[in-house]
Design brief:
9 helices; 11% strand
Length: 394
């Protein structure tokens, strides 16, 4: 185990035990404060009692019988009183030292017992936290099911279980809606496309009818892409159901085989710097993420433009960077590009370049994998999008 890993585990342990340690320090501080006050009052009352019993009493009566003065002799009152006071101070000093030592020892035991009690009291909260961290869309059927008296922690666990019941019903309804919408929206468009394609193949169709059919076919294709993007966006925003090790280099090369840069009206030069990178997630979603990044960089570009694609591994994950030579993007519009139906320069009307869902789908897929996505608008124009994906869920 490296030093960094030990430090990271130490920070995690401290973060998970911080409340216990605070409660232990609070209990210990209260104990030492109460013990110090008790010790002070004990010292005060003892000193007062010894002063009344020994120092203030008759010195003649305090003398032992064999030390009784001879007739006519003077009693050394001053010397005897000083000796009594010195012995009283010695007794009080011994009592204070012994009491302080006992207070320290008992205080140490109180700190240990306070930590044990705090750990036992907070253990149900750890159970609630562990269940919340373990839950996902695919495991919403799990419940805490805390047993015990109906105290504050039990009410918290029951409230959390009730919230999980509501979330489970909502996610089930959302999955059913996506499945039904996928069927109900795709079927009419597929029928329209078939009818339009058949009409184009009809020999008796007039040129005007064929031109209208081509226009309607293009509109139908646009709505098919729009619906496909919306459904993919809804699915990618949910919890991943497939998680397995994925070699991002193979995913990127598969996407590059699907994109044909030579058939476009504006040729684009693609620069690649691919290195092995391993992540964990859904390979189909990751393929769609890379495809949308490249497609966005190619569509929003200039004539004879360039695209730089970089893939590399980092500690515990991978980094994908896509940069192009597109038009100038104002810095204040960069964050809005990840919103659905958003385009550069605030364009939400013109749609010949797409439906404005490409980067929104990218962000949803990256967040579903526990990663981060950011964009920067260079001063010379274009856009640079950086995706960081961890190996495993965060």
């Amino acid at each position: 185990m490296t030093v960094q890993e030990r430090m990271r585990r130490g920070r995690l342990w401290w973060s998970s035990r911080r409340l216990r340690l605070r409660l232990t320090i609070l209990f210990g501080g209260l104990f030492f404060a109460a013990g110090s006050i008790l010790l002070w009052f004990t010292y005060l009352f003892t000193a007062q009692a010894m002063n009344q019993q020994f120092v203030g009493s008759s010195l003649v009566k305090a003398l032992p019988p064999d030390a009784a003065p001879r007739p006519g002799a003077a009693v050394p009152d001053v010397l005897f009183q000083g000796e009594v006071e010195q012995r009283a101070d010695s007794v009080l000093g011994d009592m204070v030292r012994s009491s302080t030592l006992v207070l320290v020892l008992v205080g140490a035991v109180a700190l240990v017992l306070g930590y044990v009690l705090a750990d036992r009291a907070l253990r149900p909260l750890d159970r609630v936290t562990d269940t919340a961290q373990r839950l996902s869309e695919s495991t919403l059927h799990e419940r805490i099911g805390l047993r015990g008296p109906p105290d504050e922690v039990r009410r918290l666990a029951d409230t959390f279980d009730a919230m999980l019941d509501r979330l489970h019903r909502v996610f089930d309804a959302q999955r059913r809606f996506i499945a039904n919408a996928s069927h109900e929206l795709r079927t009419p468009l597929a029928v329209n496309r078939t009818v339009l394609e058949v009409s184009l193949e009809e020999p008796a169709a007039s040129p005007d009818l064929k031109a209208l059919a081509r226009a309607l076919l293009g509109t139908n294709a646009r709505y098919e892409r729009l619906i496909e993007g919306l459904l993919l966006l809804a699915q990618s925003e949910q919890e991943l159901t497939v998680r397995k090790p994925v070699d991002l280099e193979q995913v990127v090369r598969t996407v590059l085989e699907q994109i044909d840069l030579q058939s476009r009206k504006r040729p684009i030069t693609l620069h690649q710097d691919l290195r092995p990178a391993l992540v964990e997630g859904d390979p189909l979603f990751l393929e769609r993420c890379v495809f949308n990044l490249l497609e966005n960089a190619i569509k929003h570009n200039v004539r004879d433009g360039e695209v730089w694609l970089t893939l590399g591994g980092e500690r515990g994950g991978a980094v994908i960077t896509v940069r192009n030579t597109g038009p100038l993007v104002p810095p204040y519009e960069v964050d809005d590009l990840f919103e659905p139906f958003s385009r550069s320069q605030g364009d939400r009307v013109r749609s010949f370049k797409g439906a404005g869902l490409g980067l929104s789908i990218v962000r949803a897929i990256v967040h579903a994998h526990g990663g981060q996505v950011s964009a920067v608008a260079p001063a010379q124009g274009g856009l640079q999008v950086t995706v960081r994906l961890p190996y495993g869920p965060r």
